[in-house]
Amino acid sequence: MSNRALLEVIALDVEDAIAAQAGGADRLELVADMAADGLTPPRETFAAIRAAVDIPLRVMLRKADGFSAGSAEDLERLVAEARALRAEGAQEFVLGFLNPDGTPDLGAVEALAAELAGCRWTFHRAIDRAADRDQLRKALADLPGLDTYLTAGSAAGVEAGLPVLLAEAARRGEPGYGPRILVGGGLALSHLPVLREAGIDAFHIGGAARPSGWSAPVSAAAVEDWRAALS
User: What integer is the mean pLDDT of 31-58?
Assistant: First the structure.
């Protein structure tokens, strides 16, 4: 097995995707509207990016800011959007929903997991807002396709969440702790040594790939810096 760490970069459009791949990204997370922390991109955007790069793409399934799936009608629309994205060729996804009390919204997650049968997917940073992370992991443990948790260890970001990330990495292989830990959310280069020492081998960047801010495109040079730090 390769020791190469996975570097995932958020891409909003074709320009981002091409720069991220040129800089050494292994995978892209495709989203729209970062003002809402990342929503489902249009199918046309997915198709254009898929045609422009040849690295794996994980597509966000989320129609509104926050971690609620919304009404039954909202969920039906999201399931239909997932079906349409699959028809365009999408094979990997990102999703995650909570109930108002911070427990996992199993109805919403299971409905999407059923629609995504045969696909791999990430449960995103909703885990960082969960009332009980351990309970969430165990509740989702048997869902098909779930292979990754995108997490900072804390809603406040990686700096605050480091103890949680290290503790969860140490539980690798226990029930609910099989999916890969993909660290993102305030991740800095200075965090990498301790995370790598703990055996964590997957990292997610968004703003760090855009030194000039979210209004600027991904910088291939910035991605190269991260790729070099992970080598």
Answer: 96
Tokens for 128, please give them: 């960082």
Q: Which two tokens stand for residue 146?
A: 């779930």
| pLDDT tens digits, one per residue of 91-134 | 999 999 999 999 999 999 999 999 999 999 999 999 999 999 99
CA 143 from centroid of its chain's CA atoms: 17
- SS3 track for the chain: CCCCCEEEEEECCHHHHHHHHHHCCCEEEECECHHHCCECCCHHHHHHHHHHCCCCEEEECCCCCCCCCCCHHHHHHHHHHHHHHHHCCCCEEEECCECCCCCECHHHHHHHHHHCCCCEEEECHHHHHCCCHHHHHHHHCCCCCEEEEEECCCCCCHHHHHHHHHHHHHCCCCCCCCCEEEECCCCCHHHHHHHHHCCCCEEEECHHHCCCCCCCCCCHHHHHHHHHHCC
- Name the average pLDDT for the chain: 96
Calpha distance 128→98 (Å, rounded): 11
pLDDT given at position 1: 37
CB within 8 A of 5, min separation 6: which ones?
196, 201, 202, 203, 230
